[in-house]
Structure formats: C-alpha cells, structure tokens
Amino acid sequence: MDRATSDESGAVIKQHLIDPEICIRCNTCEATCPVGAITHDSRNYVVDAQICNLCMACVPPCPTGSIDNWRTVLQSSPYTVTEQLGWDELPGELSLEGQTEPGINDDAGAGKSTLPAQPLAAPTEGPFSNITYNATLPPWSAAHAYTNLYGPKVREPFVEATVAGNVRVTEVGKDYDTHHIVLDFGSLPFPVLEGQSIGVIPPGTDASGRAHHARQYSVSSPRNGERPGYNNVSLTVKRVLEDHQGHPVRGVASNYLCDLAVGEKVRVTGPFGTTFLMPNHPRSTIVMICTGTGSAPMRAMTEWRRRLRASGKFAGGKLMLFFGARSKEELPYFGPLQNLPKDFIDINLAFSRTPGQPKRYVQDLLRERAADLAPLLADGDSFFYVCGLKAMEEGVVLALREIAEGAGYAWDTLGSELRRGGRLHLETY
Ligand SMILES: Cc1cc2nc3c(=O)[nH]c(=O)nc-3n(C[C@H](O)[C@H](O)[C@H](O)COP(=O)(O)OP(=O)(O)OC[C@H]3O[C@@H](n4cnc5c(N)ncnc54)[C@H](O)[C@@H]3O)c2cc1C
Ligand code: SF4
Ligand code: SF4
C-alpha cells in the first residue's frame, strides 16, 4: 500500500520504530514500556503504533539507540506489527509532498534523543515494573562511557577480536558450563567500562537464511583490560542448553563462544550501556546482587576496585556481594572469590539446590544483612547493582523495600531517590 496517497485527510504522524540492524534484542525496551506497546518474535523487536503513547520511557534505557527511530507516516496507515516483524532494515522516509501539517502525535515523538525523555514514574503499589525502580542515569561520579563505536551502521567491517583465552569457570563434568573468554582487540581502540556490554555476532544464518543478530554479553574485566596494559576484555558466558521453560535447545551464540579456540576471530559490536556504571568517587560503596552470569559486571567492578586498592591511591567505601547459584559447583569464579581479603569485600553466597540444605536465594541473604544494608540504602554514597536472571528482580526489590521500611524509611520516597540519583541499577535477561 502506498502510505503517501491512501489517506484522504493526509494527516501525518511520527511513528516510533526500532532499527532491526542495530537492535541487539536485549528486551530492555519491552520490559520498560509501561503500556505493553513493544513486542518481539524470534527475529525483531517492534513497536505497536496502536498502543504506543510516545511516553519515551523506553528510549534512555536502550543500550544501542536502535529504539530512537521515527518515520513520518500517514496517521491512517502506520506500519503494522506484522510488517515490522518482517524487516531487515528500516524503511526510508516517505515523500509526503502535498500532505497536511504534522498531526497530533508529532510533537511528542519527533525529537529524537534530544527530547527530555525521562518520565519518572513514582513508585506505587501494583504489579512489579522495572521502570519504577531502575535508574536511567549513571552514578554522578561514573566515568564517561563510549557507546556504539562499532556496529552494522557505524563502522564497516565489524570489529574482529582475537580469542586470547577460553577457560571453564564452573566445575567440570556437570550439566552446566560457564566460560571465561578473553578477547583481544589488538591495535583497535575498544574502550569499555565495568558494567558495559558488547555484542557478539555468531557466524552463519538463522532458520530463515538471514545473518544471525548480535547477542549481548557483559564485560567481566575492568577498564584497563583483563590483562592490564593489553587491549583486551573478558566475558563470562553460560552455555545455553535449555530454554527458559527447561526444553532442550542449543543457544546459537553462547555455544559458539564457549567452543572458541585461542586464535579464532570473533565479530564484535558495541560497546553498549551508559547507566550500569560504577561510582568513581572516594568512599563510595558498591552493593552487588547477582545470580549466575550476572556476576560478570560485578567481577569487573570488584577487580577495578582491587587494582585501585593495590595502587594505594584510592580510598574506596565498602564492597558487598550477594551472589546466588543453584550450587557451589555452578557458581562462576567460586575459587578466586574465596581468595579475596575479607576486609576488601563482604561476600554472601546463597545456594538454592544444595542436597540436604534448605533453599536459599539472594533475597534471603539481603534480609539477613538488613541491619548493614538499611543505612546504605539511605546513604547517597552507596550504589546498588542487580544483575542476572529476570526472575530475581522483583524478589530483590521487594527485599530492599522490606529492609528500608523495617528501618523506618518511606519506600516510595527512598525508591524514587535511588532511581533519580542513579543509585539502583537493574540489568536482567
Ligand atoms: C544486557 C545483557 C547482558 C548479558 N550478559 C550476559 C553474560 O554476561 N553472560 C551470558 O552468558 N549471557 C548474557 N546475556 C544473555 C545473552 O545475550 C544471550 O541471550 C544468551 O547467551 C543466549 O544466547 P544464545 O544465542 O546462546 O541463545 P539463543 O539461540 O538466542 O536462544 C535459544 C533459546 O534459549 C533461550 N534463552 C536465551 N537466553 C537464555 C538464558 N540466558 N538462559 C536460558 N535460556 C535462554 C531463548 O529464549 C531461546 O529459546 C546478556 C543479555 C543481556 C540483555
Ligand atoms: S514510547 Fe512509551 S509507550 Fe511507546 S514504546 Fe516506548 S515506552 Fe512504550
Ligand atoms: S537494543 Fe534497544 S530496541 Fe533493541 S531490544 Fe534492546 S532496548 Fe529494545
């Protein structure tokens, strides 16, 4: 259908669209949208124009900027969800000569990323929503994060990193398998901060013959590299062998990464992420709450603080780690974690499937440490990071709320302060 001629009134709107070439299918926008306007299939994330009210809540959290796309279309015939699901790239701008002035939606959606797009939903009762609590700003003292330096539309060809190491970091011989993979960028600039992620493009094509899209992985090394002085980053990758419902499946990118040999080349995009960043000011405290590979950014932050401490030139605040896994064998970096000095990091581990032991989750640990956590929740120099499985998010936020209220703080006020101050960061997948 020709959108430019099919509408008698000719009223146009700016339609909110997602760029399929850049989107890394991280689900952040879908989890953020308060009205359920974003949906996806196995290939694309798309915005339903019939539902989207252009509130812009999804724009700041998108790590790639792919959500910040707008096309002028006739109000009567926006691109349908079905059309968008079939796209490999965004359509060009329509020629709308002879049409009437922009319609009612135009003001709200046309401003690209310069719009003051930070609606601050007040924490309220009702179903849990990530957007209510997740900060869309980094800590005030975070270093500047570079993003989108490399990607399909930014710089061709893709960056090729070389595998410099690949070791298993969970116990061998079990049905789970997590790898620590070091990628070397050689002489190519690839600046990353702790808490950022990169995209990996697996070779080959999907079932419909299209190139695989990039998958996102948190960087688990600090800003000066896994090996200081070398231009490299590390990743913590879990081999996906069953889907979220427990059905057998062979995850494309995770299996590709876990099977890489030293010397092989990997296509990389990124870096991504501007908010899940660590504070840089002296005496700032970091509380890290994670499960499984959610430990990757926590490892990066811990290691950066460890290097700063070793330099003798930085007075850090507390480091607290709450780390959950099904069993100790399944917990990445279990051995090295035990070797960190107790006066450097306060480590709390929860295992949910240790034979003969009651199930314990990270939120149980948080409640046990309520007396230590309550003052930190109220302390503007303390920053909270949650990373891991989506299922943990609500339980952790509820535990923090219980701790705050138990100490006499009004959660609506405190939760809002944590978000506005860039002090509570949720990254789950
Ligand atoms: C911000 C962000 C950071 C991430 N960081 C990491 C990280 O540090 N380490 C890491 O290992 N992964 C991380 N992921 C997840 C990663 O991007 C991939 O989704 C994951 O590796 C699966 O990709 P795949 O290609 O192997 O599986 P696919 O081929 O894409 O999927 C196969 C099937 O498995 C399901 N599935 C996808 N992911 C998982 C999962 N994690 N567990 C169980 N089933 C799954 C899918 O729904 C699908 O049915 C991160 C994701 C995001 C959004
Ligand atoms: S602009 Fe608002 S309503 Fe539209 S998709 Fe984004 S979050 Fe949802
Ligand atoms: S990259 Fe942006 S548009 Fe794509 S799924 Fe993530 S948040 Fe949504």
Question: Which features does this protein show?
Answer:
429 residues; alpha/beta; Alpha-Beta Plaits; Rossmann fold; Elongation Factor Tu (Ef-tu), domain 3; 3 domains; six-stranded antiparallel β-sheet; five-stranded parallel β-sheet; 11 helices; globular; disordered N terminus; binds flavin-adenine dinucleotide; binds iron/sulfur cluster
Summarize the model shown.
The protein has helices at 28-32, 81-85, 106-109, 130-133, 252-258, 295-311, 334-338, 362-368, 370-377, 392-406, 411-420; strands at 12-17, 38-40, 45-47, 69-74, 159-168, 178-184, 197-201, 215-218, 232-238, 265-272, 285-291, 319-325, 346-351, 382-388, 424-428. With 429 residues, the protein is an alpha/beta fold. The site of flavin-adenine dinucleotide has 21 residues, from β8, β9 and α5.
Task: Tell me about this structure.
By secondary structure, the protein is of the alpha/beta class. It has helices at 28-32, 81-85, 106-109, 130-133, 252-258, 295-311, 334-338, 362-368, 370-377, 392-406, 411-420; strands spanning 12-17, 38-40, 45-47, 69-74, 159-168, 178-184, 197-201, 215-218, 232-238, 265-272, 285-291, 319-325, 346-351, 382-388, 424-428. Strands 8-7-10-5-6-9 form a six-stranded antiparallel sheet. Strands 13-12-11-14-15 form a five-stranded parallel sheet, sandwiched between helices. Strand 11 (285-291), helix 6 and strand 12 form a beta-alpha-beta unit. The two termini are 37 Å apart. Mean pLDDT is 87; it is low at 1-6 and 96-124. Residues 26, 197, 215-218, 236-238, 240, 243-244, 249, 251-254, 293, 296, 427, 429 line the site of flavin-adenine dinucleotide. The site of one iron/sulfur cluster has 14 residues, from helix 1.
